[in-house]
Amino acid sequence: MTDVAEHEVKGVGDMVNLSTLNEESILDNLKVRFDAGLPYTTCGQICVSVNPFKWLPLYTDDEIKRYHGAVDPFSSEAPHIYSVAHAARRRLTQGVSDELPSQSILVSGESGAGKTEATKICMRYLAAVDSLDSNSPSSMRHAAALTERVLQSSPVLEAFGNAQTSRNNNSSRFGKFLQLRYGRNGHQIGAGISTYLLERSRVVRPPAGEANYHVLYSLAGGIDDAQRQELELLSEEQYEEALPAGTGRGSADTRRKTWVAATEALAAIGFSAEEVKELARALASVLALSSLHFGWRDDDQGQRCAVPKDAEACQRAARCLQVDGTCDLAVSLCERRTFLSTGDMYVKALDEVQAADAAAALAKAIYGRMFDAIVSRINELIDSESSGSAAGFIGVLDIFGFEVFQTNSFEQLCINFANEMLQQQFNLDTFRFQQAEYEAEGVPWAHIEYEDNAAVIELLAKRRVGAFALLEEECRLQAGSADAFVDKLMREHRDSKIISVPPLQRDVKCPTFNVVHYAGSVSYDTALFLQKNTDPLHPELLELMSRSQSKYLRSLFQAQVAAGASAEEVAKTTASQRQRLWSATVGTRFKGQLDSLMATIKTTHVHYVRCIKPNAKALAAGEEEAFDRHLVTEQLRCGGMLEAVRIARAAYPHRLPVETFKRLFEPLLGDKARGMSLEQLAEELLTDGSYCLGKSKIFLRPGVMPSLEERRSEQRALKATVLQRAARGMLARSRLRHAIKNAVSLQAAARRRTARRNAQRRRSSIELMQRLQRGAAARVRVKALRRCLAATRLQMGARRHLCEKVYCTQRRAAVKVQTKARMVHAHRIFIEKMEQERLRQTHLGQLKEARDRLEAEAMMKEQLLADKQRLEKELAMAVRPSDMEEQLQRARADHSQELSRLLENQEQELLALRTQLDDTTTLLSIEKAAREREARRAEQAVLQLSLERSAHQKVQRALEVEKASTAAMKARLRTKSTQRVDATASSVDDGHGDTKRAPSAEAINTVSDLEVARRVDALARREEEIERLQSELQMAVQREDSLRKKLSHVQNERGRDRQKLDNLSNNARVKQQQIELDLRHWRNEAERLQGEVNKRDQWLKKARDIITEYQKRTIPPSGAQSPATPSAMPSAKR
Prior knowledge:
It is built from 33 helices and 19 strands. It is of the alpha+beta class.
């Protein structure tokens, strides 16, 4: 196949070699290679990677070995990202660049262009090459272990830092700079990871149509039931706000595999099982906080305050955070304490919106600090041996691409600012530095115009007037707002054409502003700029997390809350301390991290990988609309690829100092090169037009440097062959000398072997004779030993018999003692059970007696009814009225006597009940009087306690005054002690109650006599009298039932009163003991105060002696008193 046909099928590998240079030709070339399954294209030393959205057979071990063995893969091999990694490692390990030993690979592109996969491919290549170059097995094992840990860090960071967005299902929501550190021997000895600007707001409120971080989904839907119950996790669908569906929910099997892969990666890096468990608990607490919802109510002052809607959700969050009590979490989220300059504190209730923001801020803080802690822990595990011993590093930068969404907030401003800085570095490396170097060296050069984004960087990052500085200033103000920030920004940059505010947004509370970036114009919504920049977290929440029982969660906040610090100490910071706290905003931290990153990159030699996203639907090559020409064109323009191709075509990609060029390539001409000048040497080695001589360097066209390196390698190989031939001859002669020497040694060894065989035979005969003699002696000795063993066994049996006899005697004695003890114990238990049985039988007898009494009364009632029926029958069968009247009178008399007897019995029982009731009333009155006396005693004790307390305070004040107040205090203490003794010795009066007599029973009316003459009327009246008697009988039965009920009620009341009396007596006994303890305590306190007074008297006495001694020494002998003497005495007394 000809070169033209091959170009038509596979395109041009290096776009510098395009025959026609314009955007259309570059776009056509990329499309041809994309359709042919060739995702990589070069532009000089820049690799352009078009995401194929599928894995291609380009990353096998054979491919790695092939690119590793090439001298210059850019010229000898097909375009590949391995060429960039190879060039970076070669410049580092072979010392091509003495000024910049460290290397950087910047992987850039928009979201979904394949930056993360390109980074992992570079890491795999560098790790595999390092293993290939290892010589010893130990170094290979160390390299393999380090490689495994470094590669396993990628899935961990992807799980915790990647999420599904509207443009990419696995978009990195943070920036990462991986440093692979190398020792002086050229092998990897460690690694380090730096991260930038994790998107914390996604943790609680992912944007519409997007999803949260992968690890939260895998935790909610991938753990087993035991772990779910331990972490108190709900199902994935119940976290509707924090875990939206995005483009669709995954299956439980997918979630489980994702969680298992993340935990296995953590274990492979070196995380322990306990650390993984703590990470899972921290993630569960984030989900629990995100599920909190708040309502509102009016407090006592009528202010609107927040309350949790679901108490169970609040309790679950408190248990996940392992804080003491649910109310602590609710109070910390719904209230805020403020301390005034006077030291006073007042509590401000938050409304439901502020409480929800506080819960979201705590969830974001936990997740963000956990992510930083994971990165720090990974750095400890993969960089344990490289501290202070690394000679250089290869840095691989995988950072978020340029983002333009429907709503762009503070995160997009920071991301696009980072891309502006990287684009400026690309411009510096590709355009400005090269043109400046060509002009300084005097190389003929046609100036190429390119787009410079310095104005945009100055707009965003300029000191005092940049967007970040003005936002910082607005965040410091108490009344700062988004519209004030936009006004200041537009006022400072009113003449700039790269920033503007839409006319309809100028009078809005949170206006938007447009910035013209290198990749296009972006409109930013400032609604949440101030909140996201400050990322506030209340001191109460910091104090709450410092009290968490989880050591891991508590450690996440130790950098901000010192051990033992409270919310008062956090809130009572001075103004200068608050100023320092405000300086650590998100924008300031990110800008500082980005400045440090750019400073690191500027000290290295930079290699570029430009990733291109061919379509927005992730379609692989061969499908319709797989290559969106408009989208690819925009990305090429944003990356400045046309200008890069132009400068590479006209440039000299290889440049060497003159001394380095002579040192490397003079040996190619041999002795002929001695005395040659640089011009002569270049004419001999190079062709016309393939180089250009500068003032201090020589510049080479593309392809010249590889050819020189190839000739240098061939010459080195030839000289190495000569050296190897001489070495082999020397080794052969040495081997001959060793062979002759070894032959002599072999002969001596053969003779020695024969002599040894003969000596061995003689030695075997002697040993046989000795063995026979030792056998006979041993048999004799064994016979004696057996006899001794038999005697020993007999003695052992005799001793055992004696010991067994003694043991049996002791055992029988012990059994007798134990039997006696058990019998005593059983007898005691039997007596107790007999007493219980006696009481039970007594109770049963009482119950039986009451039951018999009731049965007798029932029988009596039945007998009365039978008499009534008998009387009725006799009345019906009566013949003579006189007989009937006599029988009726006798029946009346008998009935009256029976009723009188029953009434007397009932009256006696009622009197007995009344007596018992009176006794109970008396006991109750006594109890009430005792209770009142106890109450009076308690009041007296409280009064005495208050008097003692006031006396103690007076004593303390009296100790600070002069001696006169001390004497008064002594008298007061003696008085109080006398009162306390009198109060203790007071007697208790006895109570008595009134006795009520039972009312007498009602009299029973008798029946009057009837006249005999009027017999007919008498019979009728007899029937009425019988009916009246029946009614009276029924009334008597009812009164009897009523009396029985009253009797049972009185008995129950008596039992309850007896129980109350027992309880009151117990309480009185306890109170008496407490009063005695208090009296003893105050008596001891009085003795202690008396001791302190005595000590103070002794001190005063010593002070008086010292003053007297001082006066004796200072007063003149004549007795004249100085003017200062009167004032000295009071001051000394004071």
